[in-house]
Amino acid sequence: MTRLGVLGWPVAHSRSPAMHNAALAALGLHDWRYQLLPVPPPLFAQTTRALGACGFHGANVTIPHKRQALALATGASRAAREIGAANTLTFADDGAIEAENTDAPGLLAALADVLDTPTGLSALVLGAGGSARAAAWALREAGAEVSVWNRTGERAQTLARELGVRAAGAPHTADVLVNCTPVGLSARPHVERSASDREALNQLGLTFDHVGEYSYVVDLAYSAVPTQLLAAARAHGARTVDGLAVLVAQGALSLERWTGLEAPLAVMRAAARDAGAG
Ligand code: NDP
């Protein structure tokens, strides 16, 4: 049995096991399994270092471990090092742990569904956490003019300084808008929204009219119904990418790294979508 998994705390909500196990089955890898690995922060390093000897070939890493994952790895890609976080670990037989960040290329791959290239375009990233770092780095690498806005301005300034992008004092007009905050996550059917549509947009420093100033809108938050941001963007006729598309894209890149096989994107997309339908 070859094992894969997702390290997080909490991680019970993750759609990655459903998405990856469907992909492994479609690829005929019947002796591979992908499982949840709920590990609290104080146990992260010792647990992760032991995974290779326990039959694990790889693991995804999610909140709150992405920075620690990079720190404990014995080798890391340029993307992981410059972003300062890893979401994909690969365990070698000799105990080596290789860190990669597929959040960055995953965002670009998902964006490619609606936009040929962000080269030469302006992009505004909302948020200054781990996923904002990956988004800002990816868009900068792709040749976009990147600004970052965050409700806590100092964090945006630190990110901007470290990644060579601009910190914005307020959200401004751009070609591409990427939401890298959890705002909008509560927009699910059967669950009362925690904030009205207007309040959700206001938390992002936006109004409904403002949203009309962006041609391409990506929302990393994923839910069964469009987030308030994506609903507003579509109402204005913008091209949109939802968080599920980004989840599938980064997961596909991790899977290809571990298996050396082309990821079955349609299978992964359907499994990820169905996993949230309950
Ligand atoms: P972090 O906790 O590292 O960062 C969260 C960011 O969101 C911070 O900048 C924080 O601002 C901001 N924020 C939090 N709450 C609010 C709010 N109410 N109003 C305005 N800003 C807020 O999280 P991540 O970067 O790891 O993840 C962010 C989101 O992206 C999550 O929803 C996560 O699920 C999603 N995600 C989706 C992925 C996908 O594949 N679709 C991949 C990775 C993440 P402050 O600094 O002021 O606290």
Question: Topology, please?
Answer:
Blueprint: E1 2-8, H1 16-26, E2 32-38, H2 44-51, E3 56-61, H3 66-72, E4 75-76, H4 78-83, E5 88-91, E6 97-100, H5 103-111, E7 122-126, H6 130-141, E8 145-149, H7 153-163, E9 166-167, E10 176-179, H8 197-203, H9 208-211, E11 216-219, H10 228-235, E12 239-241, H11 243-259, H12 265-275
Parallel strand pairs: 1-2, 1-3, 4-6, 7-8, 7-10, 8-9, 10-11, 11-12
Antiparallel strand pairs: 3-5, 5-6
Helix pairs in contact: 1-12, 5-6, 5-11, 11-12
The protein binds NADPH dihydro-nicotinamide-adenine-dinucleotide phosphate.
The site of NADPH dihydro-nicotinamide-adenine-dinucleotide phosphate has 25 residues, from helix 6 and helix 11.
Walk me through this protein's architecture:
The structure is a single chain. With 278 residues, the chain is α/β, with parallel strands linked by helices. The chain is built from 12 helices and 12 strands. The chain is globular and about 55 Å long. The two termini are 29 Å apart. Bound molecules: NADPH dihydro-nicotinamide-adenine-dinucleotide phosphate (NDP).
Largest sheet: 6 strands, mixed
Radius of gyration from the alpha-carbon trace, in angstroms: 18 Å
Class computed from helices, strands and strand pairing: alpha/beta
Q: Would you state the CATH class of the largest domain?
A: Alpha Beta
CATH topology of the largest domain: Rossmann fold
**What name goes with the CATH superfamily of the largest domain?**
NAD(P)-binding Rossmann-like Domain
Q: Specify the helix fraction band.
A: 25-40%
CATH architecture title of the largest domain: 3-Layer(aba) Sandwich
N-to-C order of helices and strands: EHEHEHEHEEHEHEHEEHHEHEHH
Question: Could you tell me how far the N terminus lies from the C terminus, measured between alpha carbons in angstroms?
Answer: 29 Å
**What is the number of domains?**
2
Mean pLDDT: 94
Order of strands across the main sheet: 2-1-3-5-6-4
Could you tell me the strand content as a percent range? 15-25%
Number of strands: 12
